[in-house]
Amino acid sequence: MIIVGKGGNVVSANRAATGLLGVDPQRIVGAFVRDLFNDRFGEKVEQEFERTERAEENIQTKIEGVNGENLVCDVSLNILSETDGEQLILIRLQPAPLIHQNFDESEFGDEHFRAIVDNLGIGIAVVDQQMRILSLNERMRSWFPDIDPSEKPICFHSFNSPPRKDKCSYCPTAKTLADGLIHEAVTETPEGDQVRNYRILSSPIKDKRGKVKYAIELVEDITERTLAESELVDYREKLQSIIDERTAKLAESTTRLDEEAKSYRALERMTMFTQFAVDAMSDAAFWMNAEGELIYINEAACQSLGYTHQELLKMRVSDFDPEFPAEIWPDHWKRVRAEKNLTLKSSHQRKNGEIFPVEISVNYIVFEDVEYCCAIARDITARQDTMAALEVSEKRFANIVRSSPMGIHMYDLVDDELIFVGANPVADEVLGIDHDVLYGKKILDAFPGLVGRDIPDKYRAAAKEGNSWLHEEVAYEDERIAGAFEVYSFQTKPGSMAAMFLEITERKKNELERERLIRELEAKNAELERFTYTVSHDLKSPLITVKGYLELLRQDILEGNSKRMESDIGYIGRAAERMHRLLDELLELSRVGRLVNDPENVDMGELARAAAELVAGRINEKKVKITFEGTMPELYVDRVRMGEVWQNLIDNAAKFIGDNPEPEIKIGCIEQPNHYIFYLADNGIGIKPRYLEKIFGLFDQLNPDGDGVGVGLALVRRIIEVHGGRIWAESEGDGMGTKIVFNLPRPQDQQTNDEETS
Amino acid sequence: MNGESLRILLVEDDEAHAGLVKMSFSDHKVANEIYHVSDGEQALDFLFRRGEYEDPLKSPRPHLVLLDLRLPKIDGIEVLTEIKQSEATRDIPVVVLTTSDSEKDVSAAYSQYVNSYLVKPVGFENFKNLMNDLGYYWLIWNKNPWKR
User: What number is the ipTM of this complex?
Assistant: First the structure.
């Protein structure tokens, strides 16, 4: 076997090859294959290198053997590829079997043949049917020097060591002897401490009848070839595994490289993006190292400071931040390292010397074992201005709240509950309380007077939805506060509200007073109208009488009709008298409009009794019994006027007592929460319901026969009304008696005439 | 006048005034029957024949009503209103004779369909002349829808 390199020179050859070729094993390596074989074969070998697609080809060629004689060999070409690109060709040389040899008898005589057989590189033995060795060539004899063919030893006794008793099972010779065919086997023959391999090719030698007489064993020592082949296989496998391994590694590293490239590209883009973002950032960004030296600055940083990139890159923080001079830098760095990120306020100085306030957010980073710090600085001049403005506006607002003429209460909505959070001093002044004790209280706890009212809902709506609410009159009362307020509630911010209020108790009081005065004035006006009317009618009336009867009197005197004269004078006299009374009473009535006497505390019972005595004449005349019922209170009134009330009422009752056999007047008082009800009930002639109101009218007389002019009850009504009371008459009709009822306010309410604030 | 006596219902609370009216008419002999009531309630009782005037002989239908306005119990305007609202009495001429010359009373009377409004004159001669004219006008010259 010969291995040939790309250049056509032998790389390696085994002993069998050198033996076959008769070349010195020392010299064969490096020899050109062309020199070893005939030209045609040499070319063929060289061509093989070009045709790598066919890995193996068996060819038969003549080669020049030992002693310059031609030798026919089987040559198989195996192309071996090496990883480094070098190709090798394996040439296996094998002498063709003798049987197939076609040689020229004339050229090869017995002797000649004998010499060839003896000098062949393979051993030859002839064995007969009895497995006896008949002949050995020189090679066999050199391998088995102890065997003497002349003794015809049994082959399996001789060739095998230790000698076998029986023939080998695989023995090709035995098979050939049995069937006449060519058989082949490879032995593994122990020799010393190693094993040798012999290839045994057994060919039959037949007699003329075709019967197998002998077998020829061709024995070739293929130990080294086998070894080389297995080495070659090992080598190929090893190569293959190396190739596989390398390929896998390569594939793996390719993949890894791809991934790395990909992530690198992504990283590159990211870096570009980051760079772009940082540069485009509106805040100034500074990267610095532990020494405070700037290593990167973005565009905004350059612009804010007025330096160029190049200038800044040569600067330190202390060069533009007066609050971080070089001597405190190490301490600052320690702090940055400890806190990792922090926000601080500082100031930066521009190239032109301007100093402006900045808020800096500092981030500490470690990149490839080097410490850095990234500082993002924002110019907060505007913010400080805004803050200052805000502060001013807040102060102003606080001043407004404090000095507002209206009381202000403030609430926050917490879990849908209105919580009292503050008030202005005016609020406390108005309500007469200290709001400190109300802080944090729920609205209904702070102001229990609001329980069950819609005001908290209005406030809540203000805080929640911003619905403002104005109410012109809210009455409020609890243990501390009582009054009427005008309230305006509004949202101060979502979830908070304020209620502004103005006490209108006084205003309310004034309003009520005004209304009362208007009513009084209207009443007076109506009365004045009646008065005018009365004057136009009732004063004219007696005048007509006087004038009419005077003429009649003159006529009667002329006629001497004394009877008519008397009657005329009577009419004239009564009319004059009536006129006199009318004028007196009108004067009296006009006085009542003003309280002519100062009010004093008067016992009403005593006063009524005194009045009854003053009109005793009529009472006694009509035999009227006067009964006083219950107790009478003491009131703060005009004694004289109130006396006139009783006098008029008692006299009037007595006047119209009629012909009741037991005339009686009952006078009494019933106490009510806010006033007293006085009554004067008679069992006299009574009044039809339709005239009940009429009796108090000026000059209204139900009975023209009476001696009055119709001023008495009008006067009584005036006096009662001036004292804040009311008077009316009750009667079931004619003959059913009359009850005059009037009320007067109780002393605590008497002086103010107040209606209650709702 | 078909020989029929003429009737005037005089509603007057002032006795003296009533006397002047009666004497004025008696001097002229225009009216031969004057029925005098002294308050509004009596006037309506008379006209609608109620109470003490239930008997038609006591309360013949008047040809004219002379009505004062300031009356006890029911005042003149109210009496006028009732007269003019009732189908039975609305065609009786009603003449207000009062001391009041106030605008209020005049318009109140006319708004209740009074037929005439007179203010009592001062002095008997004036009174007499007025009553004379009144009598002639309403009882002689004026054509009335006489009803029994």
Answer: 0.84
